[in-house]
Request: fold
Amino acid sequence: MTKAGLRQGMLHHLKYSLGKDPAHAQVRDWRVALSLAVRDRIVDPWFAATRATYGGRHKRVYYLSMEFLIGRLLEDAIVNLGLLDEAEEVFREYDVSFGDVLANEPDAALGNGGLGRLAACFLDSLSTLACPAYGYGIRYEHGLFRQRFVDGRQVEEPETWLSDTHAWEFQRPEAAFEIGFGGEVAETGSRALWQPGESVIAEAHDTPIIGWRGNWANTLRLWSARPTRLFDLERFNRGEFAAAAEPEALARTISRVLYPDDTTEQGKALRLKQEYFFTAASLRDILRRFRSEYDDLRKLPLKVAIQLNDTHPAIAGPELVRLLHDENGIDFDDAVAIARACLSYTNHTLMPEALERWSEALLGSLLPRHMKLIERIDDTHARQHPDRKMRIREDGDVRMGELSFVMAHKVNGVSALHTDLMRQTVFAELNRLHPDRIVNETNGVTPRRWLLSCNPRLSALIDRTIGNDWVGDLERLSELEPHVEDSGFRADFAAAKAENKAELARFILETENIAVDPEAMFDIQIKRIHEYKRQHMNILETIALWQAIRDNPDAGWTPRVKIFAGKAAPGYVLAKKIIHLINDVARLVNSDPVTSSLLKVVFMPNYNVTLAERLIPAADLSEQISTAGKEASGTGNMKLALNGALTIGTRDGANVEIRERVGAENFFLFGMTAPEAVARRAVPDHATRAIEASPVLARAIAAIEAGVFSPGDPERYRDVVENLRWSDYFLVCSDFDSYYASQREADAVFMDRDRWIRMSVRNTARSGWFSSDRTIRGYMNDIWGVQSIV
Ligand code: GL4
Reply:
């Protein structure tokens, strides 16, 4: 593909798709025209991939996920097609800023955080590895809310990514299924016929996802809900306009918004409807495709691998059994065996509040047939293991994790530690019954987005040093290792980081009106706000540091910029309080003339994929400070290490593996281990004791209590402080001293800049294993039994 070809394609779309000539085109017109021209280049490899899959009668992977946090797609597609230079040149000719064109694309936030972003990285890797695959999810009209701060408090606003043309998708009105809810079950012998009481139509929208080097494209198929009957003409004619439109509004509600929380189980009928809606539509589509090629449904597992991304699509188990047994007459036990051979399940959290449970009453009314099948699956499983008391149903609820486990042939955790803890805790009993079922697949991130595109300065240096094969084979980064002894290379590496930091400093000045010193250490914590992630421990440490600097401003402090970003679930009161506290601390600290050259605090609003792409390349220090045993894996930790940030972290999730790979000497470790944390929690008054033992912590807490950061309103953070003093489930107080000491060690190393750079290079050079290509290969071999098509 040449520059001329790209120019021609773009001008064609500008004229014929958008009705504009170049002289009058706005940035948005250029963006859509370019997207359509790029999409055109994807269609041929996309068709070729489909043909190769059909032609070779290959097994396909179906990744069912309630969330795909894909972000912007244009640059990704351009980079994967190798058209970046061409596109830049074309825009230079028209005197249009290519950066503005890319920035014009809405950030598709169809996910909350790590779980959704992992699914997006997996799509990139599945295409890169030429693994025949479909992503299946929901085409939410509104993605994750937009976050603003008003007087330091989080305010949520609806997100509107679809209000402008979505250039990437193909609407598929012909790929539509009617999805039922409620109604009755008529039993005839062992078979049953479900007659739903209401239904909606699931309509497909396809986005092709092109892999690295543009050789293969898979499909992301998202379902939107529309009514079976458009509106009630009779009522309309009677003048009941709103009532006439009601069925339509109700149906569309199903794909209206993304639930803004993945760490609590939502006891809402609408959430369950969303889950069944996309799962049922996807299974119908999978069977339709299978049937177009084969006629024996018993062979389904040979051609179909279905991955359940967490329990959100767990109803796939009973639904597949229903389709095989009720609708196709396959014996119940055989139907269960076939379904199990197709299905596998990824667990993403051990937090009890996030483990989905649905009441039998709700399930029974919304999905009466499925409830019966779940009972039968549960009873059969119990009968097969009479000596064990494990049940899927408990206290009137169906436990979706247990259901998924029983219906899957493989169950995986997302880091080595998390998988071990799964075996020992939530699934201990099931693991005893099925010892080979649990496997580990440590998460990874796509190097295309999270190094090549987001950090062009570092990528260019890597290319110059070892060539560019690392993009498709990230372990090749280890070839950088010998260059750590080359002072010229170290200088270039440091310069790339320095320029990234200077760019971020300019952005912070422009958007937040805060001047930060680009030479200072950029200390970054970016992730959802949650007590277990302990942003409050970070802000306590910030307060303590501020106090220490004020005590003795000339003690040779390492200048720091503390950067926070992340959203709190709208109903999570304490998390919102933590945001407010950080903003209050920032306001006071940033205006303190005594400390202002040494310490700044910035909370960047509206954290999303695009903001992450700006922050990660500019980070010196990566905060991965969750209470051990609570963060299943983390993936931001991998992105930051890959971009040369040093981690200050606990032995939690994938931090453990990051430290093993980059070397303990290149990682700031602190805090209790997971078993130590459990033991500590059992000590009465553990928090009070820890505060008494730590004057530094006591003083920081006292300042909050005295209203230093909330003048005139000392009560503002009473709940935060009380929680720390009297409960502190997440052990902020117990880990504080160790954290504070580790931070001071980081200060000292940062002063020895050459040592820091060496450590930083080693982090990049040794992070190759954390590619999502490696993760996907693991799933292909250990779980799906599929191969790349070459
Ligand atoms: C999460 C975990 O909290 C996170 O540690 C992990 O990296 C991610 C992807 O596996 O999944 N689980 C839930 S729930 N949300 C997440 O982000």
About this structure: Residues 113-115, 118, 262-263, 348-349, 354, 414, 443, 631-635, 653 surround GL4 (CB under 6 Å). The chain has two domains: 60-443, 447-672+734-767. The two ends are 22 Å apart (CA to CA). Residues 27-55 form the longest helix (29 residues).
